[in-house]
């Protein structure tokens, strides 16, 4: 399950940012996961629960934005969902497509640090 190694890297990056900003805890981490990235969101959530234990993310939430796979047909300009497994054939002009617009993302988009107590 490679989601555990991905979750571990997410925790490490968030802890590093928290240290740099003097925060003791991380409240949430937001990630974008493409439909074609080969990552199962539920497995990533489970792995995050395991990887965060005993860290500054011990109570943090992992918020996943799932990004659908989309392609563009250059000859006719049609954008369309490719599905899983991806079907890269234009539904409008029936030509093969080579340009994938989205769906391969795997990125941290935000890390929310605990607010300092006053």
UniProtKB/TrEMBL annotation:
Tagged with keyword Metal-binding: yes
Residues involved in Zn(2+) binding: 73, 76, 90, 93
UniProt-listed Pfam families: HypA
InterPro entries: Hydgase_Ni_incorp_HypA/HybF_CS, HypA/HybF
Residues engaged in binding Ni(2+): 2
Keyword Zinc: yes
Alphabetic keyword roster: Metal-binding, Nickel, Zinc
Function of the protein: Involved in the maturation of [NiFe] hydrogenases. Required for nickel insertion into the metal center of the hydrogenase.
Family to which the UniProt record says this protein belongs: Belongs to the HypA/HybF family.
HAMAP family, alphabetized: HypA_HybF
Protein known as: Hydrogenase maturation factor HypA
């Amino acid at each position: 399950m490679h989601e555990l190694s991905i979750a571990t890297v997410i925790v490490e990056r968030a802890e590093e940012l928290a240290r740099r900003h003097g925060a003791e805890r991380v409240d949430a981490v937001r990630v974008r996961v493409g439909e074609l990235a080969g990552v199962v969101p539920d497995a990533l959530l489970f792995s995050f629960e395991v990887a965060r234990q005993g860290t500054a993310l011990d109570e943090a939430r992992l918020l996943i934005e799932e990004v659908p796979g989309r392609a563009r047909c250059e000859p006719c300009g049609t954008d369309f969902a490719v599905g899983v497994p991806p079907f890269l054939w234009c539904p409008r002009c029936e030509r093969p497509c080579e340009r994938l617009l989205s769906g391969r993302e795997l990125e941290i988009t935000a890390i929310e640090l605990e607010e300092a107590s006053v």
